[in-house]
Amino acid sequence: MQPPTGFVVWLSSSKHSLVNKKRLSYTCVRQSLCFWLGHSVVPSLVYPSTWGNRKARVSCTVGSSSHQKEQQLYPHRLLKNYGGLGGKYDTRQYPAKSLCSHCGLCDTRFIHYVKDSCAFLNQHISELEYTVHGKSRALEIEDQLYFGVHLTMLAARRKQPLPGAQWSGIVTSIATRLLETGKVQGIVCVKNDETDRFKPKPILATTPEEIYASRVNKPTLSPNLSVLDTVEASGFTRIGVIGVGCQVEALRSVQSKLGLEKLYVLGTPCVDNVTRKGLDKFLRTTSSSPDTVVHYEFMQDFRVHFKHDDRVVGGSGKQWTETVPFFGLKTNQLKDIFAPSCLSCFDYVNSLADLVVGYMGAPFGWQWIVVRNNIGKEMLDLVSSQIETMPLSSSGNRFQAVQNSIPAYEKGMTLPMWIAQLLGVVIDKLGPKGLEYARFSIDSHFTRNYLYMKRKFPNILQRHVPEYARRIIEQYKLPQQ
């Protein structure tokens, strides 16, 4: 009988370990050991066993130098037919456990790199800033301390807002132009699931129609990176990705493994995402008509803006906006709805995207644009004829408002609605505006998240909180207990 010329590798989904599963000749064993030792994995000579449905079979021929070189460069490709960790968003199945933000990385073969890529296992924004932008933020410059590396910041809005857009439609417009101009072959974005308007469904969009169908922010945790296997299988070499901070940090960490010629990353600021169950609780606790809400946002006027459309409940198409002051939120009932990953995040401003489009930092009715590098400038230039712009401004003083908000949140204070409405009007007139409002929002969330980490995850606090966040937090007096 001829000795086998290849070997078969099996993946155990419970331990994420690769195990050799075939009788091998001495030569094959020796060559296999040399190959696998390069990946810190030693093959075991075992006989067939049942591993359940989540097993991936990979056949390869030992001795092919080009094949071995590819495996050394892209070891995740050995995990063929990898179907994720069970398909359910059970945080106990994921390496980051309760801190998992469900970015989608671990639902792909790129789980091979999760230890170094996950924002909650290996926070390394400063190092990645240098890789992506060519430099890390200068901590002595306030705008970089708060908003990260950037070439410029400005306010913008579409001259003619897109129908159905959450605000004016700048993100949708840029993604569409990237595709129409041939700069990319596909865009990773998120549409709504057909059965649930708030359930995210990541796709690799290849038509303007698919991009348009993905407009509007999704308020729940979204596995955007779950389509990375699809991206790799497509053979596309130029893609765009729309994502939030934790997704972008993981994406940047594996970018060199995607085999791309060009990657455009269009980011949005992100804070306080919730699970689908948590979203239901928030809507029913806060909105007067939770069943008709189509999207919402915490805005610069210190109010939550809910947009309603009664067509979601079979109505005639009536649309309206509802506002609720921040100070009227039932904090004592809502402190448990936010995802632990969001309560542990210190990348509100999406530091690693090429271009960031949000709202904080801009006047009400405008969008805040942060151009981080030349790729970001290239993207913004695509829609220069469709938008109007203006310089950013800054006024007011955030410090006392932030300091007062710390114990208020800790105690879960909730004001009667009439007082909350009155306070909202006063603060909207006299409180921080423009970039000072953006700093207020960052300070408020960083101090809250630091206290959460200190209580819940003290063992990883020191390595998880980046230096720029520490400097911001040190401006305030935090509770000792």
UniProtKB/TrEMBL annotation:
Protein name in UniProt: Coenzyme F420 hydrogenase
A Pfam family matched in the record: FrhB_FdhB_N
Domain of life: Eukaryota
Recorded GO MF terms: oxidoreductase activity, acting on CH or CH2 groups, with an iron-sulfur protein as acceptor
Domain Coenzyme F420 hydrogenase/dehydrogenase beta subunit N-terminal positions: 153-228
UniProt cross-references to InterPro entries, sorted A to Z: Co_F420_Hydgase/DH_bsu_N, FRHB/FDHB/HCAR-like, FrhB_FdhB_C
Residue ranges constituting the Coenzyme F420 hydrogenase/dehydrogenase beta subunit C-terminal domain according to the UniProt record: 237-392
